[in-house]
Amino acid sequence: MKLRPCRLCGEPLIHTFVDLGMSPFSNHYLKPEESELPCSVYPLHAYVCGACFLVQLAQFEPPESIFGEYAYFSSFSDSWLKHARNYTEMMIDRFALQSFTSSIDPTTDSSDVSPLVVEIACNDGYLLQFFQQSGIRTLGIEPARNVAAAALDKGIPVVMEFFGMELAHQLICEHKQADVLIGNNVLAHVPDLHDFVAGLKTLLKDTGVLTMEFPHLLQLMEHNQFDTIYHEHFSYFSLHTVQQLFAIHGLAIFDVDVLDTHGGSLRIYAGHVGDTSKMIGQSVHTLLQQEVAAGLRKIETYLAFSENVAHTKRNIWQFLIEHKNAGRKIAAYGAPAKGNTLLNYCGIGKEMVDYVVDRNPYKQGLLLPGSLIPIFPPEYIRETKPDIVIIMPWNLKQEIAGQLSYIRDWGGQCAVWIPQIEMW
């Protein structure tokens, strides 16, 4: 069998990181009438490159079939909106971004002198709305037309296409080069990393700043976050792998923030190689050293991950059997892609979890892919009074637990399964 090449360095992939079996696409929710139709499943087998240490999946569908219409709307998380607002305020202050309404002669063409903030995968405008409210020009790039429509409703200009070199050149021709270029939780979704990052290089102004946020592979491994592995996430990054990728295309990471979002993420700041206004800070060196100390430059570290995942699966089944045998009703809160990975890997269906609720009306009335667990609005919990509510988006457990505080009225409890089983 011909080995697949690494999408970063091209070396053949021979090392398994974790094999989660066969699974449907995690964001392909089903209508009830589709429940008895054949379900397409694909290998969810993550490999790690022994040369550059990029963790990655095979690509089974073109991005157009996955992201042409998307079920995830960023604005349904209050904590994520707060994160976006805080980021906006920080960037405006740190990089002295001035609004054209306060800094420009009204007779001057603002497009020539005012900063332009461009976000790739802008989703429903959850972030750019805050720059726009501050009087700063914005442009969103979002291929999923249903979520892009929500951004347009906020008055945000959106280009509804996939990003890469071709679109970057088109935007340059339209005089839309970015002073600030943003990509939050998009890098993992990109099958052709080199075309994408070459596009970033092209679109960024000579003295512009690029920021990207992505889940940190070190946190995924240390906290057993295997459920964040699904077909839409083609790659899983350490700072080391992203630094290698950017260097190939003439971009240099000069700062990095460690975030608690999505179970532990990095926000990297980058500019063009040769931009002397952006010197590489100690934070970059420190985090690279932490990754070395954690073993992320040794293949043995990656090969040990699979057993931790199998152990978690056994513990979850033990939890479910114990509580279902005791006659307890179990529901779940949230229908994220990560939850579908976990349910399908563990083989959990509606005989164990009665239903799931989600704030996103786009998902309500549908069925989870694979497990066929029905999705209801959050108020369904009050009507049915389950004994246990599993919080599937464990990264938002504090926010959601606060929303669910009322279940204590009938003795209900909240629980999470990742990184380990916890109930309160």
From TrEMBL:
Matching CDD domains: AdoMet_MTases (cd02440)
Domain C-methyltransferase: 261-419
Organism: Paenibacillus radicis
Keywords attached to this entry: Methyltransferase, Transferase
GO molecular function, one term: methyltransferase activity
A Pfam family that the UniProt record links to this protein: Methyltransf_23
Domain named Methyltransferase putative zinc binding: residues: 6-67
Protein name: Class I SAM-dependent methyltransferase
Single Gene Ontology BP annotation: methylation
Highest classification ranks of the organism: Bacteria, Bacillati, Bacillota, Bacilli, Bacillales
Entry-linked InterPro entries: Methyltransf_Zn-bd_dom_put, Methyltransf_Zn-bd_dom_put_sf, MeTrfase_14, SAM-dependent_MTases_sf
